[in-house]
Amino acid sequence: MNATCRLLGLAITAALVLLPWPAFAQAAGVQRLAWLQGCWRIDAGNRIVEELWTAPRGGTLLGSSRTVRDGKTVEHEFVIVREAADGRIAYEVSPSGRPPTVFTSISLDDGAVVFENLQHDFPQRVAYQRQGSDLLAWIEGPAKNAPGQLRRIEYPYRKVACTSEP
Question: 74 Cβ partners below 8 Å, 6+ apart?
């Protein structure tokens, strides 16, 4: 009887350890993007691009960006990163007031992520990669006037303090 109780106890412990815990998995998935949090900036002549990311909480990251040219905002977007129903990470972006588009992760590690939506015209991929203290973001997809060619636009951000100063 004693050996049977021990075996039963081990079986229950093993089942609990191996049991999928959706809330934990969700936090762990989005938590892997904690390196994205903070404020990022590109200064390019008369153009400034700023991207801000919250810390991962509640299974989400929230992001926003704007492009300012000659002192006027010319583009903006709002992003929510969350766990998708299939267990991958979803990147839902609403650029400059347009309807949202959802991209899902096709690769994710501790310093890079690539999201993809092959049904979208452009971009079809959105990616972020830490490069030391900097962040390289890029979008890519089919080139509009060159069938079969890939178009890629890179955004080499540097980390900046999150302040309200210009």
Answer: 67, 68
Which helix H or strand E contains 108, and what residues bound it? strand 101-109
Backbone φ and ψ of 131, nearest 5°? -130, 85
Answer yes or no: are the C-beta atoms of 154 and 137 closer than 8 Å.
yes
DSSP state of 95: E
Identify the three-state secondary structure at position 31: helix
pLDDT of residue 73: 98
Return the amino acid letter for 50: E
* 102 DSSP β-pair partners: 92
The amino acid sitting at 93 is V
pTM for the model: 0.81
Euclidean distance between CA atoms 26 and 89, whole angstroms: 9
Q: Residue 72 is which amino acid?
A: K
Residues 117 and 124 sit within 8 Å (Cβ to Cβ):
yes
3-state SS assignment for residue 126:
strand
The pLDDT tens digits for 36-90 are: 999 999 999 999 999 999 999 999 999 999 999 999 999 999 999 999 888 899 9
Q: Classify domain 22-160 by CATH number.
A: 2.40.128.20
The conformation of residue 85, written as its DSSP 8-state character, comes to T
Domain-by-domain residue ranges, the chain? 22-160
